[in-house]
């Protein structure tokens, strides 16, 4: 029997689990570091002023295609634009965490402030301050704000790789706009991915109650150290059932530093495509463990290629820290900055090896797994060319092949918009929900292929 559940984080939806979750109440330990802890109040009194409410307002732009049949009604007077653009005002509430009191930096979720024209931050002492958006990363759902205010309190991110399943955790946020609320629980799981919430997923799972409005709030340990940013929950009835997800502090720290340094995230790229190591692959390679990322192929001239990584390698660690899945590998690499030097632990032909790699920048690695851009492009490999984005490879039976794409096709437009680069292709597809028409150059002929959402 399958129970369908809904993942809710603001407007984020999707996913199902095999059975209904069992909700448990975590007891608070009697001591931490040898000191008796009769209450969480002393720790919370220090850290709760660093957790703020985030109120946003703006206009949501929606586009709707005008049916071609209208041209039969209006003839030559038909509207030239094939899309209707509408703006609808919206308001939203979320949470944020002050990570630098001197500079007024606040971390929240991208989906909390997405499309906002105005961002107001409510401080613990009742002050309301207008915030400036410094930068965002949609793929990991992180945003950095800045305010100008005195007497702020901060929570510094700690080493989230050091936390373990079973560690106690405390969630602080602004659920349902009620005001600041604190809940406690444990770390239920680590490295959660494949949930379809974000492009880059490596979540901490916790049973500390997280509800609508907690997005962007703090997940802290019993010392009051920031271990994650609350992002999503599983909510079959719209409320907490004990399954919440937070972005690890290490990922947040890396992304924030890139935004501060460059005004944007300069994502590190390894240059491999692969899959999770399952029982069949493990048996075929004579491995006892089923943890790791299996490398299907290596992009030519990529950082992985230059470092000597080969198809068939199994990546099991990054800088000495275990990697359980290919999604976890992708998320960790993707949130490290370009130019970062990492040591990858790999298994090749049954032997353990360590490979040093300097991560490249996305613009430097021309070919990408197209499934990261649109699900119906999965199986295709894309490369920037002078005229547009060329399909340099395509897997038989893949969604891209079933969409009608062929090797050698050059994508030159989306609907009526001209595109020339992978970045423009990705941005264009993100702007259009549902089906889109790709303008293709094939053998010097132009044609359109429709991608279903």
From TrEMBL:
Q: One Pfam family name from the record? A: PDZ_2
What are the entry keywords?
A: Hydrolase, Protease, Repeat, Serine protease, Signal
Ranges of residues in domain PDZ: 284-350, 362-444
> Which positions carry the signal peptide feature in this UniProt record?
1-26
List the PROSITE patterns. PDZ
Record carries keyword Lyase: no
* UniProt-listed NCBIfam families: degP_htrA_DO
- Entry's family note: Belongs to the peptidase S1C family.
Q: Under what name is this protein listed? A: DegQ family serine endoprotease
């Amino acid at each position: 029997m399958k129970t369908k559940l809904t993942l809710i984080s603001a407007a984020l939806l999707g996913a199902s689990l095999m059975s209904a979750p069992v909700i448990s109440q975590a007891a608070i330990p009697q001591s931490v570091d040898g000191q008796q802890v009769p209450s969480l109040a002393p720790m919370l009194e220090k850290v709760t002023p660093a957790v703020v409410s985030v109120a946003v307002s703006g206009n949501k732009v929606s586009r709707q295609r005008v049916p071609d049949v209208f041209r039969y009604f209006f003839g030559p007077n038909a509207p030239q634009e094939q899309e209707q653009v509408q703006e609808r005002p919206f308001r939203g509430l979320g949470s944020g965490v002050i990570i630098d009191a001197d500079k007024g930096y606040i971390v929240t979720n991208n989906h909390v402030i997405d499309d906002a024209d105005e961002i107001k931050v409510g401080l613990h002492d009742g002050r309301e301050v207008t915030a400036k958006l410094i930068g965002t990363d949609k793929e990991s759902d992180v945003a950095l704000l800045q305010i100008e205010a005195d007497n702020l309190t901060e929570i510094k991110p700690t080493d989230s790789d050091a936390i373990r399943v079973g560690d106690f955790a405390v969630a602080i946020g602004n659920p349902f706009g009620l005001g600041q609320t604190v809940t406690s629980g444990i770390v239920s799981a680590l490295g959660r991915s494949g949930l379809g919430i974000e492009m880059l997923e490596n979540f901490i799972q916790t049973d500390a109650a997280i509800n609508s409005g907690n997005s962007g709030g703090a997940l802290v340990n019993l010392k009051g150290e920031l271990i994650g940013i609350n992002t999503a929950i599983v909510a079959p009835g719209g409320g907490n059932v004990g399954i919440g997800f937070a972005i690890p502090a290490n990922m947040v720290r890396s992304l924030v530093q890139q935004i501060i340094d460059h005004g944007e995230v300069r994502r590190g790229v390894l240059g491999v495509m692969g899959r999770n190591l399952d029982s069949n692959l493990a048996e075929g390679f004579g491995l006892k463990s089923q943890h790791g990322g299996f490398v299907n192929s290596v992009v030519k001239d990529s950082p992985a290629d230059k470092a000597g990584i080969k198809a068939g390698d199994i990546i099991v660690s990054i800088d000495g820290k275990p990697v359980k899945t290919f999604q976890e590998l992708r998320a960790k690499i993707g949130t490290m900055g370009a130019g970062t030097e990492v040591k990858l632990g790999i298994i090749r032909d049954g032997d353990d090896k360590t490979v040093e790699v300097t991560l490249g920048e996305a613009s430097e690695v021309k070919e990408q797994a197209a499934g990261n851009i649109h699900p119906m492009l999965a199986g295709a490999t894309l490369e920037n060319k002078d005229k547009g984005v060329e399909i340099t490879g395509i897997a038989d039976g893949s969604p891209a092949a079933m969409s009608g794409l062929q090797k050698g096709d050059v994508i030159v437009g989306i609907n009526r918009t001209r595109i020339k680069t992978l970045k423009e292709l990705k941005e264009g597809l993100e702007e259009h929900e549902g089906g889109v028409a790709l303008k293709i150059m094939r053998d010097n002929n132009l044609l359109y292929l429709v991608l279903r959402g």
